[in-house]
Write a structure and sequence with these properties.
Elements lengths: L18 E2 L21 E5 L5 H17 L4 E5 L7 H5 L7 H6 L4 H4 L1 E2 L6 E3 L8 H5 L4 H11 L2 E7 L5 H4 L5 E5 L5 H7 L5 E7 L6 H6 L65 H31 L35 E2 L2 E8 L2 H14 L5 E8 L2 E11 L2 H14 L14 E3 L2 E8 L2 H13 L5 E6 L5 E10 L6 H9 L5 E4 L1 E2 L7
Parallel strand pairs: 1-8, 2-6, 2-7, 3-5, 3-6, 7-8
Antiparallel strand pairs: 4-5, 9-18, 10-12, 10-13, 11-12, 14-16, 14-17, 15-16
């Protein structure tokens, strides 16, 4: 390893000597390891021209190594124009940095534990055309003060040439550079003044092809990497194993003392379906009963589905005429199967908060009354816990992007339907709720609305959304609520299960609404 000498930030300065770093097996260099004397956030300034996977793996290795020392560590992806960390780790990118600053999302809920590594990741989140505004936001001061107070470390993964980086450097004074050795001039120029660059990690070098051919086979080639130095650096793979603490859904970060110790960057990174390993003998003994149980559940679900198709009145209410979800009849074009057609719906993650009630009926009545005034803006009820109390919250809109949500919010504010005083600020009225409970799929709008009305009459709030398919057809999904995550959807799922109805939590998709003038 090459020794690193930290240098203070100044225009045109030279970076520290580069250290070749292979995150697939190398320990962290001493200068890139956790240092308790650095109480503020650390910028991971990456070179956009460097190999994408190496840059992401290097950042993941640093966060993993810091966590393995027992330090609570959060890695935030500020590569907002081209986020890469969530994809590389194998996690979904839902609420993230953009949602925290623009839409009031909870920082603690947006920071999700990375399976098998122990540190927390805040993904980039919703796309924004103005990433510079995020870096310049004055709320960074409050967020960073919270990390200092909690004794947690924040690693900010951000391009070295990002506009607005000097503003962010007002709150972060330490940095680690990740980039190509051939781009030293550009990286030196881009590094913000006032920031101390403690280490410069570069991808492993490859010997020139001609030199490799000319090398004598009888002479052993020198190793690509020098032997590790005395234990001044961190070797996280030697950390003792630790048990994973169950997720509590609370607003406080969990202690790193109860997370899984892992090598610096064991590749490939965990897949989204990662789960804790259990003893093989125990798995084998459970296999047969589990398969039997799954088969029974499939048979039961099929029987319930057929029963509801034959007798829709079992859902409550009386369906007549075109509203009745009648059995499939030969030759009925409207109910013909879709064959191999796949859904081509657009994600509809945004909504506008209207009001919250402790009882269902007032919320349902409000949703019905304002829907008559705004027929183009969908209104629906979402049961959701706030603290330890269940509220029935009225939302408006199933929207594809934040611009549509802002336009709808302004219309509702002008009409007096919503009030920013109910939630704090006008920005807090816009919600990111990408998930919904799917309660059925029907071929016509009339049938779907009848199903939704029937469920709503049984105190199971529901609404219908048109969904296009790639063969040009359109069907209608019946959804219940709109939620940020599975924990938020728990009350709705419980209602549906108690009613004995099949349901599943899905990403809310449908036909994107036409823009409103």
């Amino acid at each position: 390893m090459t020794d690193i000498h930290a240098t203070s930030g100044s225009a045109g300065r030279k970076l520290p000597e580069p250290t070749f770093f292979d995150p697939s097996f190398e320990r962290l260099p001493a200068a890139a390891s956790f240092d308790a004397s650095r109480t503020g956030p650390v910028l991971l300034l990456f070179d956009r021209a460097a190999e994408r996977d190496w840059v992401a793996d290097a950042a993941i290795a640093i966060a993993t190594g810091w966590n393995a020392t027992g330090q609570r560590t959060v890695l935030a992806d500020l590569g907002l124009d081209d986020p890469m960390l969530a994809e590389r780790i194998g996690m979904s990118s839902m609420e993230g940095v953009v949602d925290i600053f623009l839409y009031g999302a909870s920082l603690a809920r947006s920071a999700r534990p990375v399976p098998g590594r122990g540190f927390y990741l805040i993904s980039a989140g919703t796309y924004t055309p103005d990433s510079t505004a995020i870096l310049r936001d004055p709320r960074w001061e409050k967020i960073i003060a919270g990390f200092r107070s909690a004794g947690a470390s924040l690693l900010i993964f951000v391009p070295s040439d990002a506009p607005g980086l000097p503003s962010l450097a007002r709150w972060a004074y330490d940095a680690i550079m990740l980039g190509e050795q051939s781009h030293e001039a550009e990286l030196s120029r881009d590094a913000p003044g006032g920031v101390t660059v403690h280490a410069w990690l570069t991808p492993p070098s490859q010997p020139p092809r001609a030199a490799a051919v000319a090398a004598s086979p009888a002479v052993a080639a020198p190793p690509r990497f020098a032997e590790p130095e005395a234990p001044t650096g961190i070797r996280p793979w030697l950390a003792p194993p630790r048990d994973t603490e169950p997720h509590t859904g609370g607003e406080e970060f969990r202690s790193a003392e109860n997370t899984v110790g892992a090598p610096a960057a064991t590749l490939p990174v965990p897949a989204p379906e990662w789960e804790e390993a259990e003893p093989k003998a125990e798995k084998k003994s459970r296999a047969a009963p589990l398969i039997t149980l799954l088969l029974l559940l499939l048979v039961l679900a099929g029987a319930v589905y057929i029963l509801l198709q034959q007798y829709p009145q079992l859902l409550g209410g009386t369906l007549t005429g075109a509203q009745a979800d009648a059995p499939v009849r030969p030759g009925a074009a409207a109910r013909a199967p879709r064959g191999s057609a796949a859904s081509a719906g657009t994600a509809l993650p945004f909504a506008v908060f209207v009001k919250a009630y402790p009882q269902y009926e007032p919320a349902r009545q409000l949703a019905s009354s304002v829907a008559a005034k705004f027929p183009d803006a969908r209104f629906y009820v979402t049961p959701e816990m706030t603290g330890d109390k269940l509220y029935y919250k009225v939302f408006s809109g199933a929207l594809a992007d934040s611009a549509e949500a802002v336009a709808l919010r302004e219309r509702l504010l002008r009409s007096g339907v919503v009030s920013a005083d109910d939630v704090g600020t006008a920005d807090d009225l816009i919600l990111v709720r990408p998930l919904a409970v799917e309660l059925g799929e029907l071929p016509t709008q009339e049938a779907a609305q009848a199903r939704a009305d029937s469920l709503s009459g049984r105190a199971i709030p529901a609404y219908a959304v048109a969904v296009p398919f790639n063969d040009g057809s359109e069907r209608y999904k019946v959804y219940g609520g709109a939620f940020a995550d599975s924990a938020g959807a728990a009350p709705m799922l419980k209602m549906v299960q108690q009613a004995g109805l099949p349901a599943r939590l899905v990403a809310r998709t449908g036909r994107a609404p036409a823009p409103q003038k």
